[in-house]
Amino acid sequence: MGHPMFPAHAAEPCPPPGLPAGRLLTYPRPLGGQKSACRKTGRARRAPQRSPAQELACRHSTQAGGGQALDLQTFAPPQRGQPGMARCWQQGTCLSTALTGWLLALLASALPSTCLDRLAGDNVSLAIPFSLPAPEMVTTIAWKKNQINVATGYFRPNFSVVVDSEYLSRFHVDPISGGLNITALKLSDSDVYTVVVVPVGSVESKADVTLKVYEKIHSVSVTVSPTEVFEGNRSVTLNCGPVQGSVTWTKDGQTLGEDPRYVLTDGSLKISHPQRADAGNYGCTISNPFSNGTSTAQLTIYYGPDTPRINVSSTDPDADKESFVLVNTSVNLTCLAPSQPPAEIYWNVADPEDNVVPSSPSLLLPSVQLNQAGTYSCLAINRRTKLQVRSTYRLTVAQRPTGSPHCSVSSTNNGTALLFACSWPGGFPDPHLSFLGLPVNKEVTSSHLEHLEVSPFPAGLSGQNITCLANHLTGQRQCSIIPEAPSGVFLSFQASEDTRRIVTMEMDCQGTFNPAEIGWLRSGHPLASDGDRFKLSPDGTRLSISNFTTPQDLGNYSANCTNPLGFQDANLTLIGPTISEWDLSRGTEAGSAHIAWKVPSGSVVTGFQIQMQGPRQARSASQWETIQELEATNRSTTVMGLQSQSSYSFRVVPLLGSQAGNPSQVLTLQPEPHLSPGAIAGIVIGSLLGFILILALLILLICFVRRARNQKVPPTPPENRHHYLSRQFPHGKESNEPSWGNPRWSSGDSDIYTITYEEHLRRYGGPATLSFHSRDNGHCNSTSSLPQPGAKNIRSATQV
User: What is the spatial distance between Cα 441 and Cα 47, in angstroms, rounded to a whole number?
Assistant: First the structure.
């Protein structure tokens, strides 16, 4: 059985076989020339658990001639169990008649829709949003408001439409266009209006027109319910009105974020289980196409107080506020207890005699003292929430120990045991002290720690580093001590004098030892501190002798160094002020002399005098003039202002206070060598004569070179050949070929050959020469020996 809107004999809307999916399909008009068109979306798929209406989206559009075209965007398979429907859905499958009627029935709800916004008091005309049938067709029309008839009747060919009495005064149907005219719009006119046009014997046409009527927004208000909101309440609602358009919410000027606790309905914002973070300024904006308005409301959430937290601050940047504060610093305790409204704070202090206790979050303790250490508590009360909470804090006031810890080791039990000690006094509370490196690591919480180590001592104790660790609230320090048997012990001394030139001698016993008991001796006799001339330092390493004089205080001194770990002696022999050697030389500057000297080991000296004899002395030449007084540390000096042509004698005198030692040997600085004026003149004249002689030699040399370069030799006739003796060739024979390859045998125009000396005498006889004169450019004349034409010139062996 088909759907009532379609006859049972209507062709089933199936696509022809082989038609690709997605092509627009057109079917014969089953009713009144109506066309039906469907678009398949592709491969079939199993539908999720949704209704067919949710899977089918149809568009209802107007076609020429009053027909309607159906554009099916999406098909889904029919759900299992629905009668009269095909059980499968795949490309090219035909639908049953029942399913076709069901799909077309769904299309009735997808009508053309128009939305109009109008202002209250205006007039509006609701036009029909589809094409009307031919004028000659008998057609009925009906306008409905929210599915309730407002006007019904015949539209064509004879107009006869009746308006419901409730709307008669303002509602009218236009006889030409069929539109619904409404005058003097009211807010109540906002609704969905449906127009139904039915040609007799054909299918009806329907469309919806949504009309929204607005008033101009003049004032918007936001109210909070309930007026007092506490953290943890069930909910709070903010109402915004009057609602004459769309409503948007903001919080503190920002768009309201997503939160599952927020519920928005009809101009209200409901917040479930409000929290302190929800407090703020909420804004509501109502807007429509013609106006808008905004209003705000402050949402206050009451909560707390939370458990107070006490923070401590101090003027000392090095203090650890979590553990202690330093005495005499300013300390501020702050009680923080989050609360709305702010909580009232009350303090209980550690000192019961402190009567000035503020009722404020901050408690100031200026120049805190040790007796102010203890437990402090703050009480936070919220009068609105009627809650109160207390919190406590224990304040520790500390005082730094003095300086750094001090370590020492001493001999005890008649030199058979070592006593190790570590102390760090002046702190509060007491530090924690402990030794590291001893066989037994002893620890105490005190300002002083001692450990006794008796003989026999463990191997390796001498030279081992023993450390004392000292821990205090204000910091950690340490000190170290090394017990050592005496080794490398020696004596040194230093003599000094005061303004009265009284000498004080100080002798030190130095070396590697810890601890040490030192006994001093002079010439084998013990020396003890008498409080007058002889004094010993507290540790016995220094012996001081005041008013030290020579020769009674000179001699052999020794020190016996001993401790429980070993024993060693050291000796020193003191002698009077003496100069062992010295040197005199001319200084680097003109008129100066450099003096350097040495002092023998053990010589006690507090200063030196440099004495001189020279031409400037007004006194007798045999007397010495002291020109410089130097300290005991000096070993050289320079004397300035001497005359280079004079001789000077010097000596160095060592001093011990006011006592002078033996002077050094006398050294003399001789005058500097110099030239007389006559010698200087002779040197100048000799230099000039030498220059002239050299110049003359140069001239002669130039003339000789030029003459030799310009001399010419006349050509030698064939019969007057030059003959050379081949001294270099012991087997010399006449050669018919000239030796041009050897420069020794080459000549400009001569026929040169080799001949033995005997053959030369046989042919030409003895030597003969002729002299002639030649002029070289008219400059120089000389005499040469050249062969004459027709004469035989024979050279001797020496000439060759």
Answer: 85
Question: What's the CA gap between 347 and 363, in Å, rounded?
Answer: 8
**Any idea of the CA torsion for 640, 641, 642, 648, to the nearest 10 degrees?**
-60
Beta strands in 397-447 (DSSP E): 397-398, 406-412, 417-423, 432-436, 443-445
pLDDT tens-digit series, residues 264-316? 998 999 999 999 999 999 999 999 999 999 999 999 999 999 999 999 999 98
State the pairing for strand pair 517-522/555-563: antiparallel
Q: Which residues contact 168 (CB under 8 A, 6 or more apart)?
A: none
Q: Span 762-780, mean pLDDT?
A: 46
How far is residue 649's CA from residue 595's CA, in Å, rounded to a whole number?
Answer: 11
CA-based max dimension of the chain = 185
Using DSSP, state whether 352 is helix, strand or coil. Answer: coil
Q: Give yes or no for a contact between 372 and 397, defined as CB atoms under 8 angstroms apart.
A: yes
CA 140/CA 19 separation, integer angstroms: 40
- Distance between CA atoms of residues 731 and 745, nearest Å: 17
pTM of the model: 0.49
Decide: helix, strand or coil at residue 191: strand
471 CB contacts (<8 Å, ≥6 apart)?
Answer: 431, 432
**Tokens at residue 40, please?**
């398949």
Give the count of beta carbons closer than 10 Å to the beta carbon of residue 622. Answer: 7
Highest average pLDDT, of 92-101, 213-222, 722-731, comes from 213-222
How far apart are the C-alpha atoms of 707 and 268, rounded to whole Å? 137
Three-class HEC string of 533-574: CEEECCCCCEEEEECCCCCCCCEEEEEEEEECCEEEEEEEEE
User: How large is the average pLDDT for residues 606-634?
Assistant: 83
| Bridge partner list, 124 | 182
200: amino acid identity, one letter: V
The residues, ordered by sequence, that sit 6+ positions from 188 with a Cβ below 8 Å of its Cβ are: 213
Q: In 10 A of CB 220, how many CB atoms? A: 22
pLDDT per residue as tens digits for the range 358-398: 788 999 999 999 999 999 999 999 999 999 999 999 999 99
Task: Sort strands 205-214 and 113-119 into parallel, antiparallel or unpaired.
Answer: parallel
Mean pLDDT of 28-53: 34
Q: What is the DSSP secondary structure assignment for residue 98, as one 8-state letter?
A: H
> What is the pLDDT of the chain when averaged over all its residues?
78
The three-state (H, E, C) secondary structure of 211-237, written as one string: EEEECCCCCCEEEEECCCEECCCCEEE
Q: How many CB atoms lie within 10 A of CB 569?
A: 15
372 CA to centre of own chain:
44
**Count of other CB atoms within 10 angstroms of residue 641:** 9
Q: For residue range 402-446, what is the model confidence (pLDDT) as tens digits?
A: 999 999 999 999 889 999 999 999 999 999 999 999 988 889 999
Q: Name 187's bridge partners.
A: none
What phi, psi does 424 have (nearest 5°)?
-145, 80
Q: Which residues pair with 381 in a beta bridge?
A: 344, 388
For tokens 């009232």, name the residue: 344
Tokens of 11: 């062709």
More confident residue, 335 or 94: 335
Please report, as a single letter, which amino acid is at residue 777. N
| Three-class DSSP category at 89 | coil
Rounded distance, CA 327 to CA 439, Å? Answer: 38
Looking at the predicted structure, is the pLDDT value of residue 138 above 70? yes
Tokens of residue 171, six digits: 């509602």
